[in-house]
User: Fold this.
Amino acid sequence: MEQDTITNNTIEVMRAEEEWQRAGAYSVRIEGMNRQHHISLRDEFDELDGPDTKYIVLLDDGYPVATCRFFDAGGGMVNIGRMVVLPEYRGRGLGAKAILEAEKWIRELGFERIGVDSRVVAVGFYEKLGFRVVDPEVYISGPFECKRMEKEVGMLKILVSECLYGGRVVRYDGGEVPETHPTFLKWKEEGRLIPICPEVFGGLPTPRPDSQRVGDKVMASTGPDVTEEYTKGALEAVRLAKENDVAFCIMKQDSPSCGSKFIYDGTFTDTKIPGQGLAVEMLRDAGFKVFAEEDIDEAAEYLKKLL
Ligand code: SF4
Assistant:
């Protein structure tokens, strides 16, 4: 049994090797896809559903609530697909649990790469699990618009601030600061980077008021205490770092969440002091090494020693 860190519900993650477990995986697909998206049973269950295909199923108190499948696609690659979480269980990290358990199994089976035909709306979800888009072309699969994504199995991952990763605008001021260091871009291209924004994970909007650490709290320049939101986002960053077993983190300097050497002093007078953001503090407390974006060369040396 595994404890779900977001909801505290007890969720069981299973490799569906027996018939009753497969029945659970199928039932989630019937409820979550056939009924919800009006996909016929014939279209949902294709020629790839058979004895050679592997299934993951997640149970909540004995009832199936999420699933995915994977199969040998040839050339050392497997394809993951049919990832379904029942509507009332979405937003609780169960999809990631299913994919990560599949990935463990895939590694044990000796495959080198995983491919997924991701719905366009799910590209960000798979990026957080280390997949990268390998063909920008959008194609139609059933009722969905999809992009092809892949990842290498067993590649050491790096957690990074999402504003450095680029793509989605997440900064408090609505601005963008994508990192252009060639090594960082190479890592991004390889699918090595896991982008996370603790403040967005904490439920805060973009743009949002400037905030600073003030003692044990985080305060917005407009007055409200936002410690709860920052703490929630920091815990999610730690959860993702653990879930992806990252080698280390590269976080945006000076932020009240991501700063690793300096932060603003809490007076909103543009004064920096030595310190760290809340997410970085929790990542370090959990044992993760954190670099600032100005130390990418040092991070590259560190990675070289781990490879
Ligand atoms: S919380 Fe971190 S990742 Fe998000 S915008 Fe601020 S510095 Fe970037």
Notes: Residues 284 and 290 are 7 Å apart (CA to CA). The chain has two domains: 2-152, 158-306. The two ends are 32 Å apart (CA to CA). Residues 1-8 have pLDDT under 50 and may be disordered.
